[in-house]
Amino acid sequence: MLVHSDRWVQLDQQVTLTENGEFDTQLKPGLYDLFVGSRGFLPFTKVVDLRSCKPVAIKVRLLVDMEHLED
């Protein structure tokens, strides 16, 4: 998973997930691009607005990439 910002805060941070697929990180207020990807699944992207300084919880469920499944 990658958290990226080039707006107010310059950041490229890769995050390792727990066994349960969760992570916790501290970020400065700003706008961030969240990218979640895994082999065999369609990628997920979202712009996350942290300018309000409030905690944000995002639940992501990746969909299987049926078009590129190996035989």
Tell me what you see in this structure:
By secondary structure, the chain is mainly beta. It has one domain (2-64). 0% of the residues lie in helices and 31% in strands. The chain is built from no helices and 4 strands. The chain has strands at 2-6, 10-14, 31-36, 44-49. The protein has a 4-stranded antiparallel sheet, with no helix packed on it. The chain is elongated. The two termini are 26 Å apart.
Give the SSE layout.
Blueprint: E1 2-6, E2 10-14, E3 31-36, E4 44-49
Antiparallel strand pairs: 1-2, 1-3, 3-4
The helicity comes to under 10%
Unreliable spans: none
Supply Rg.
Answer: 14 Å
Query: What is the spatial order of strands in the main beta sheet?
Result: 2-1-3-4
Structural class: mainly beta
The overall average pLDDT, rounded, is 82
How large is the share of residues in beta strands?
Answer: 25-35%
Total helical elements = 0
Shape: elongated
Largest sheet: 4 strands, antiparallel
Helix-strand sequence: EEEE
Strand tally is 4
What is the terminal-to-terminal distance? Answer: 26 Å
Provide the number of structural domains: 1
Give a quick summary of the entry.
By secondary structure, the chain is an all-beta fold. Helices cover about 0% and strands about 30% of the residues.
